[in-house]
Structures are given as structure tokens and as C-alpha cells.
Amino acid sequence: DVKVTQSSRYLVKRTGEKVFLECVQDMDHENMFWYRQDPGLGLRLIYFSYDVKMKEKGDIPEGYSVSREKKERFSLILESASTNQTSMYLCASRPTGFYGYTFGSGTRLTVV
Amino acid sequence: QQQVKQSPQSLIVQKGGISIINCAYENTAFDYFPWYQQFPGKGPALLIAIRPDVSEKKEGRFTISFNKSAKQFSLHIMDSQPGDSATYFCAARSNDYKLSFGAGTTVTVRA
Question: Which residues of B touch A41 (CB under 8 A)?
Fold first, then answer.
């Protein structure tokens, strides 16, 4: 069964900390995405990557960066966490030319 | 600003009833319209999808109706079951292969 694995289900971090959210997929997909999910706002795209070492800004990239050094791993980085980044973060992957995304189970981040 | 507007925010339906969720969009470049289902503690999972050259698609108890001229599409859940209780997201794919999601609808099916 194909899988997208997010390393942490729950994280609590302090304001100003540098935070790393990790995502690994075992499907050899070229495309990977980071979304944040907030009540009433749905899923909003933060960053995505079409290939190793490639990254593109999504709709809400401010305060975030990403890293993709290997095809299977896509990391989301909060350079200096703030309370308004408290959210559910979802990673997804998709093979090139295919429509469907496979999502991970999410990381619920609380910044205090 | 949300590119895909979804309503209602939540709905409650009796077991055996019909759940209807509506979505609207403005971008005529969207070329693929999936629906995702999300259970608590899980990521969204693809439920059903439609292309704009088709007006209706049915998979089991789930049906998408698509109105290209009105730029609207909807999900109908027939004979709703308690196991259908979940959050449903509509989405639309742009020509750069990114998905834009609606705000989500929480469906509660009462036994």
C-alpha cells in the first residue's frame, strides 16, 4: 500500500523556534506538496516541488521554506515559529501526469 | 481569497437520507474536479473526481453533478450511512497541476 509518512502527529514549539516538519513517500512520486489546514479555510498550499532540489511557492509561503534533497523526502521549515502558524500541516505527493494526490495523516503543530 | 467556494460549512442528515454539498469556481482554466473525504486524525483521501466534459459521474452511493456553464459542481451522497460522517473537500486543478481546495463541509449522519 502506498504511503506518505509525516514524522510527527503532534508538535508543541515555542515562539521563535526553528521547526522542521518531515515528510517521506515510498511511491517514487516526482511531485510533493505542503498544505496547511485551518477550520473554515480548507487546505491552503504553502510550497510544492516538482523534482529533487526544485521548489515553488504556493499561495501562502510567507514564514516558511522547504527542502528537497532526495526524491522521497520533502521538509517544511518554519524559520521562526509564530503563534499564527499553529495549524494542521498536511504533506501530499503525486506522480507526474496523474491527477490524484496521496496525503499523509498530518502534523498538528501548536506554537506557544 | 478562495478560488473554490464550498457550502454548507456543515450539515446533519438522518441515516438513509441524501447529503448535498455544493462548490463554485471562477477560473475557467480548471480542468479536473476531485472530491476528498477526511476522517478525524487522517489525511484527506480521494473519493471521486470528474472532468469538465462530463455532466455527471457516479460511484456507488456518491455522485458528482457538474454544470460547466454555471461553474458549479456538487457532491450527492445517497442513502447516507453513519460511516459517511466525515469532512468533505471539493477541489479544482489548474493547468499547472496544483489543486485549490474548498473550505470543507463536515457531514454528520445520525443513526
Answer: 2, 103
In B33-93, DSSP assigns E strands to 33-38, 45-50, 56-59, 62-67, 72-77, 86-93
How many other C-beta atoms are found inside a 10 Å radius of the C-beta of residue A59?
Answer: 14
Interface contact A104-B43, CB threshold 8 A: yes
pLDDT digits (tens, 9 = 90+) for A51-75: 998 999 999 999 999 999 999 999 9
| CB contact at 8 A, B81 and B66 | no
Of A95, A90, A81, A83, the C-alpha closest to A108 is A90
Q: Please say whether the beta carbons of A104 and A6 come within 8 A.
A: yes
Contact B93 A48 (CB under 8 A): no
**Residue B77: predicted pLDDT:** 98
Write the pLDDT tens digit of every residue in B27-42.
988 989 999 999 998 9
Count the neighbouring beta carbons within 10 Å of the beta carbon of residue A38. Answer: 13
> Distance (Å, rounded) from C-alpha B83 to C-alpha A73?
33
